[in-house]
Amino acid sequence: MTTTVLPTLLADRVAGLRSPSAFGSVLGEVRSDAIALTGGSPALEALPREALVAATAAVLADAPRAARALDYSAHQGHAGLREWIAQREGVDAGRIVISNGALHALSLTFLATVNRDDVVVVEDPAYPLVAKVLQLAEARVVAVPVDEHGLDVDELERRLDAGLRPRALYVVPDFHNPTGRVLSADRRERLVALAERYGFLVVSDNPYVELRGSGSAIADLDTASDRVVRVNTFSKTLGPGLRLGWAVLPDWVRPGFLDLRSRLDQHASSLTQEVVGEYLATGAFDALVGAASALYRSRALTFTAALARSLGDAVEVVAPEGGVFAWPRLTDPEVSVADFARAAASEGVLVIPGEQFGVESPAAARHFRASFGQQDEPTLEEAAARLASAYSQLEKTV
Question: Is the overall model pTM greater than 0.90, yes or no?
Answer without folding.
Answer: yes
